[in-house]
Amino acid sequence: MRTLFIISIIFICFSSFGQQMRAQEKNYNFSEASNVNSIVVEIPYANNDFVNGRLKKLLKGWGKHKESKGEHSSLMVEMKDMGKMPFNVYARLNEGNNEIISVHFGIDLGGAFLSKREHPEQYKIMESEILNFASSVVKDWISSELKNEEKILNQLEKDQKDLEKKKEHLEKEIEDFKKRIVQNEKEIKENIDLQAKKKEAIQIQDKKVKKVEQKLKDLN
User: Fold this and answer.
1) The pTM is what?
2) Out of 76, 88, 109, 157, which residue is the most buried by the measure of CB atoms under 10 Å away?
3) Cβ(22)–Cβ(112) under 8 Å?
4) Model confidence pLDDT, tens digit, residues 69-118
5) Domain total for the chain?
């Protein structure tokens, strides 16, 4: 039941975000070229380190990866759908004031950076790749976050059960104490009655001892 609940939350969050996710064209400065066309996508929820790690993994899978001064590059990338010529990809993360991370991708086709107007078919392919990347990052981040929250919830529920067991144990002890008090009170009453009888027996016996002592004195 809880697993279905978690899956539902992931689906709702991811579906809601997926409907809003867009890639845009913007001019950007990369180390290899300034004020060139880039494809930028915004990634909410995840932190910078998480996105950076996933970006590095993506570009390592595409080609020869390098990272310098916060900029990633993947050189001599080959994708069948992009044509026969290899190309270079440059990418950089920027974290905005609203904590949404923007990732700029510059696709150097060799003499020109990829643009929607000049390379519509290739642009569509790279846009899809980038959106799939962003979607998977968000989905994996939310899944990881939910696992952590679920772990905390499980621990809280365990603590709650331990407290309930402790309460039951203490209540049982109280009941046992009450029964013991009743039993002790009964035994105290019996003890008082026995003490009275013993005192009476002691008095009688004391008289007998004195009587025998007197007989012994009389013999002397």
Assistant:
1) 0.70
2) 88
3) no
4) 999 999 999 999 998 899 999 999 998 777 789 999 999 999 899 999 99
5) 1
